[in-house]
Amino acid sequence: MSIILVSVVILFLTFVILYWLKSNETEQLPLPPGPSRWECLKLFKYLLRSEDAKMHVVMDDLYKQYGEIVTFKLPGTCMVFLNSAQTIRKLFTSVAYRDVTADRPPSFFKTNLSQKGSDIILRDYDAVQMKLRKMVHTTVKLYGEGIQVFEEMVGSEIRLLEKSMTADGDDTTVKSFDIDAALTTSLIRIIYIFLINETPEDTEKVVEAVDRFDKALIKMFQIEVNLMFTLFPWLRFIPGPIKTSYDYFISSLYAMRSIFLNPEMIKTQEHDKDMTEETVQGILGNIITAGFVTTKGTLSGFFLLMLYHPDVQKRIQDEIDDKIGDMEITIHDRQHMHYTNAAILETLRFIRHVPYGVPHCNRMDVDIDGYRIPANSTIFTNYWSMAYSEKHWENPEQFNPDRFLDEHGKILPLDHPTRQQFIPFGVGRRSCLGESFSKSRIFLYVTSLLQKFTFTKGDDPLPSMYSETWGNESTLLPGSFKCTVTKRLSP
Ligand code: HEM
């Protein structure tokens, strides 16, 4: 009896000491500042209830109140918002942190929809993720830098788009051209060519399926919607708005897969045990979703900005006339086109249409800048606030490509402090795989179209050029708009 009693006492004391040590250890550094638990709940309720609520605006308010790292506590999860490029670089690229901050947080989508994270975007950082990333990165980068056959296919797609902008007969002006719809069709055709290696027979069917799927996806990836599904996954079975949007998402996912996934694609991967059918499906979905909406957002935003800033459009056209003339434009022209490259970078900064990236998760406690980020936090990169921070940008609300040029009119080098502040594609282990692919497509579209056409505001009202008004999804788009397109005379 006495032995049992002594054992219980020893066990109890051990537990008390361990608990004390543990809590002492975790109290070493405080959590980053942030609103109280009660305020967090109120904000979360506001995000769920109000149609106009935007997560990136809430993040911006918190950044202004609490500084560069902010904690947002909700039952069962701790969210951390990183509000400066410097902190993001430190956490995602330095040897000390980069391997422990590269997972993706647990979520309903990771468990139920991405085949338990067997794709690239939602999978945790491990040897297989690294292998899949490397494989897809090499291919996407190669295409980004201009594989001849693909380049020719893209060239003919851009010519198709140009043709749609030219009125019949001798007319050189189209009064009411829906540029957003034209870009949608053209970019989806290019993704199709990239994945299937041939032009689609039924463009309308492909465009409808991808467009529908993407709209459903960016809605589902909104932080608050994602969190709702993660905390209350059973809501998808109860008739109501949550079930409706879930069912809509699933049906659009299957429609999209039926177009892009063919048995051949899976068969060719059979020799590789890491490339299961689920993984092929997952990667395919990643490229379609990550590759289309983001590039379309940039191009729609760019042409919208040209309508508001004819002076910038004129300077790009002058550069095209000067450096390329009426020759066919290739990706190799990019290196001479400093002002055009600056205008593309400034568009990405100005519209900040991927406001909070894709969340990371840290697999262990991380001490940084005098704070502790507890293990398994959901870490958000607040690109939205960074791109307009008065600390780093002069007159951030002005669209000014010159901010990316030096005194000789050359694009600032990558290690210049201004470029270091600007990381729209993320950095480190989980940075964007499509950076060079999308930059080269954007360059080709912008220069090929401005070489031949001038875009001006027509009679139709335009969306605001400020992306605050572009909705509250995880990728912001200006929506449909029309403009006047005038054919330019050869330089
Ligand atoms: C303007 C265009 C684009 C922007 C602004 C953009 C931005 C981003 C950002 C911010 C991330 C998250 C980085 C992180 O987790 O830290 C990301 C990830 C990713 N992007 Fe992009 N992206 C663009 C275009 C593309 C394109 C064209 C593709 C594919 C062809 C692509 C494929 C991916 C993939 C697969 C990931 C996940 C990487 C991983 O989890 O390891 N993106 N992108």
Walkthrough of the structure:
- By secondary structure, the chain is α+β, with helices and mostly antiparallel strands.
- It folds into two domains: 29-105 and 355-387, Uridine Diphospho-n-acetylenolpyruvylglucosamine Reductase, domain 2, CATH 3.30.43; 108-352 and 395-421 and 424-487, Orthogonal Bundle (Cytochrome p450), CATH 1.10.630.10.
- It contains 18 helices and nine strands.
- The chain has helices at residues 2-26, 37-49, 55-66, 85-93, 108-112, 127-144, 148-164, 179-196, 203-220, 223-231, 241-260, 263-267, 277-308, 310-323, 338-351, 383-386, 417-420, 435-452; strands at residues 69-74, 77-82, 173-178, 360-361, 366-368, 371-373, 378-381, 453-456, 482-487.
- The strands form three sheets. The protein has a four-stranded mixed sheet with strand order 1-2-7-4. A three-stranded antiparallel sheet has the order 3-9-8. The protein has a two-stranded antiparallel ribbon with strand order 5-6.
- α9 (203-220) packs across α11 and α13 (277-308) crosses α14.
- The mean pLDDT is 86.
- The structure holds protoporphyrin IX containing FE.
- Protoporphyrin IX containing FE binds at residues 120-121, 133, 140, 286-287, 290-291, 294-295, 298, 354, 357-358, 424-426, 430-434, 437-438.
